[in-house]
Amino acid sequence: MSNMIKLEINGIPVEVPQGTSILEAAKTVHVKIPTLCYHPDLKAEASCGICVVRNADSPKLLRACCTEAAPDMKITTHDADIVQVRKSVLELILANHPNDCLQCPRSGSCELQTIAADFGIREVPFPREVLKTPVDDSTTSLILNQEKCIKCGRCVDVCQNMQNVWALEYIGRGEETRMIPAAGVKLNESPCIKCGQCSAHCPVGAIYERDEIQQAWDLLRKPDTVTIAQIAPAVRVALGEAFGLEPGTLLTGKIYAALRRLGFDQVFDTNYSADVTIMEEATEFVDRFTNGKDLPLITSCCPAWTDWMEKYAPDFSDNFSSAKSPQQMLSALAKSYWAEANNVDPKNIAVISIMPCTAKKYEITRSEEMSSTGQQDTDLVLTTRELARMLKSSGVDFLNLPDEEADELLGVYSGAGTIFGVTGGVMEAALRTAYCFVTGDDQPPSINFNNVRGVDGVKEAEIDIKGTKVKIAVAHQMSNVEQVLNAVRADRKAGKKPRYDFIEVMACRGGCIGGGGQPTGATDEIRAKRTAGIYTDDEKSVVRMSHMNPQVQALYKNYLGEPCSEKAEKLLHTKYRKRKIYAK
Amino acid sequence: MSNTKQNTNNDKVEITPDLKLFIDEWKDKPGNLIMVLHRVQETYGYIPRSITFDVAALLEVPLAKIYGVLTFYNFFKTEKPGRNIIQVCMGTACYLRGGDDIMEELEKQLGIGVNGTTKDNEFSLEAVRCLGCCGLAPVVVINGDVHGKISSNDVAGLLKTYREKESVTA
Amino acid sequence: MAFKNYLLVCGGTACDSSKGIELTDELRKEIDAAGLKDDVQIVRTGCLGFCEKGPIVKVLPEDTFYVSVKPEDAKELVQEHLVKGRIVDRLLYNHEQGKSLVTVEGIDFYQKQFRIVLRNCGVIDPDKIDDYIARDGYAGLEKALFEMTPEQVIDEVSRSGLRGRGGAGFPTGKKWSFAAAQPKGEKYMVCNADEGDPGAYMDRSTLEGDPHSVLEAMAIAGYAIGASKGYIYIRAEYPLAIRRLETAIEAAREYGLLGEKILNSDFDFDIELRLGAGAFVCGEETALLASIEGNRGMPRPRPPFPAVKGLWDKPTVINNVETLANIPVIISKGADWFNKIGTADTRGTKVFALTGKVNNTGLIEVPMGTTLREIIFEIGGGIKDGREFKAAQTGGPSGGIIPREFLDTPIDFGSLSKIGSIMGSGGLIVMDDTDCIIDIAKFYLEFTVDESCGKCSPCRIGGRKLQNYLSRISDGRGQLKDIENMQKISEAMTRASLCGLGQTASNPVQSSLKYFMDEYLEHINDRKCRAGKCKKLITYTITDKCIGCTVCTRHCPVAAITGTVKEKHVINQARCIKCGICYEKCKFDAITRS
Question: How many CB atoms sit inside 10 A of residue A528's CB?
Answer without folding.
Answer: 16
